[in-house]
Design brief:
four-stranded antiparallel beta sheet; Gyrase A, domain 2; 7 helices; elongated; single chain; 138 residues; alpha+beta
Length: 138
Amino acid sequence: MKLRLVSHSPDIETTIATSMKTTTSGAMPSTLFNRFKDRPEKVEDIVGRIELQHGNILEHNRLVWSLEAPRDMVLDVMLRTKYLNFTKLGNDRWVVSGNLRSVIELHITHRDDFTETLVETIMEASPRIYDFIRRSEK
């Protein structure tokens, strides 16, 4: 199996921080987002305190992977999650897409080589969420 992150939404962690603060701030989401864009240390602080009670804050993003894997393995993963989308390209090649919530929930419920690799791929797109996942494993 080969899995590679090929694309993701920009500013994922800024978007997550905005979503987290929207519920407790009177400011418009666009105002919060623009403030956070200028203050990455604030984003790091907010996202570093994430909890999974409100998983919907992890849905405002999209990640796209290239997957090379046998059909049977892909079908097994498809049966375990309804939140990742798989498109067959042919000859054991697939496009997979989903959001951070789907990655985390699949990893929590089904720990295997696929989900471990999936988590490793998000380190570039969202290092704080990656750290959160790894911390929660202990």
